[in-house]
Design brief:
Shape: globular
Order of helices and strands: HHEHHEHEEEHEEHHEHEHHEHEEHE
Strand order of the largest sheet: 8-10-5-11-9-12-13
Distance between the termini: 66 Å
Radius of gyration: 23 Å
Number of helices: 13
Largest sheet: 7 strands, mixed
Length: 368
């Protein structure tokens, strides 16, 4: 066909690189995945212009809605480069749902946004399946989303993800952290790995050190390095909800970007200072590997990575043992990692050279 013939023939959306048929096929493929996440208040039917949720059917009396949105960050680049699309949706849900639970809110429903240059239905379906899996773990319904095929916006094979989660909490049960006071105990819930923060540094180390992702990790000959790095973010919702409903938790901090140093102060009231003992838990082999590979100073570790703690939970001293037992019974690994002192609102993390690969004992402080 000549250029003249092309200009004189009818144009279609497919000529511009967008396949309506592929988009429709994807919606049909993912509809059962969304339906499997239904919960009281949502029927998880796809295809309308918006998703409905019935708060009354969910059992709320005087609720406040709480919303959160997030992405997966450059962990997606590793997923794309190594064909690991079956876990990033869990990361996406986790980053939003864990942010809701720290305010006492039960995640109710989730919507996703998937954008790519050319739609690969196999990849997209794997991603949405993992989002649905994450929703099931968090107890929320996948009630809708958007798939955007945008030629020229993304390199071949690339895609991006965003997630939007809405939860609810009874008005008198919002967790604000205002009750936190000197003498309270800080518990740490173990992370499942790097989660979804710090991957720009991880990828820089991988490039500079020439890591072989498809080979066993140097610290674990039974598991590939890429499997360690792509381990999905742990979702803490179902473990924490019963304790929240029983009013046994004073405050929580989801340990994401900014690490322990910068996230814990976000839940503290004025006059409360968190003192964290980094020797109270053993640094994971993965975190020790990252630190050694980059000769990363402990303070930089404590504000870049979660360092093995994915959620910090503040309780009164007389509740610490019972809350720990209940969380462990729910499947969490729990450490007593610190206490609350009187002082400027902030956080101090201290550790010894022996456990944190430092040249000397160290202390790092962040004031909010």
């Amino acid at each position: 066909m000549t250029d003249t013939d092309r200009r004189n023939s009818p144009y279609t959306y497919a000529d511009a690189g967008v396949s309506i048929a592929a988009g429709n096929a994807l919606v049909r493929a993912i509809a059962p995945l969304a339906k499997a996440t239904r919960r009281p208040g949502a029927d998880a039917e796809l295809g309308g212009f918006g998703g409905f949720f019935d708060l009354k059917a969910a059992g709320f009396v005087d609720p406040l809605l709480v919303a959160a949105n997030d992405g997966v960050g450059t962990k997606l680049k590793l997923a794309i480069d190594h064909g690991r699309h079956d876990g990033v949706g869990i990361d996406l849900v986790a980053m939003c749902a864990n942010d809701l639970i720290v305010q006492g809110a039960e995640p109710l429903f989730f919507l996703d946004y998937y954008a790519t240059g050319k739609l690969d239905c196999g990849v997209a379906e794997a991603v949405v399946a993992s989002i649905a899996h994450g929703c099931s773990i968090a107890g929320c319904a996948l009630i809708g989303g958007e798939t955007a095929e945008m030629p020229g916006m993304y390199a071949a094979g690339d895609y991006d993800l965003a997630g939007f989660c809405v939860g609810a909490v009874e008005r008198d049960a919002v967790v604000t952290g205002r009750e936190i006071a000197a003498g309270d105990i800080v518990l740490g819930l173990a992370s499942s790995g790097v989660h979804s923060n710090g991957f720009s540094l991880v990828r820089r180390l991988a490039a500079d050190r020439g890591w072989k992702m498809d080979r066993p990790a140097l610290f674990d000959q039974d598991r590939l390095l890429i499997d360690w790095l792509m381990e999905p973010t742990r979702i803490y919702v179902k473990s924490l909800l019963p304790l929240l409903k029983a009013r046994r938790i004073k405050g929580m901090a989801h340990i994401t970007g900014g690490g322990l140093l910068e996230n814990i102060p976000r839940v503290l009231p004025d006059g409360a200072h968190a003192v964290i003992d980094a020797d109270a838990w053993e640094q994971s082999r993965l975190m020790a590997f990252l630190q050694a590979q980059g000769a990363i100073e402990p303070e930089e570790m404590a504000r870049t990575f979660n360092c093995g703690i994915g959620m910090a939970v503040v309780v009164s001293a007389d509740e610490a043992a019972g809350v720990t037992a209940d969380l462990e019974a729910a499947g969490e690994t729990v450490f007593t990692i610190g206490r609350i002192d009187a002082g400027p609102r902030g956080c101090t993390v201290s550790g010894s050279a022996e456990t944190w690969s430092a040249r000397a004992d160290w202390t790092a402080t962040h004031e909010a």
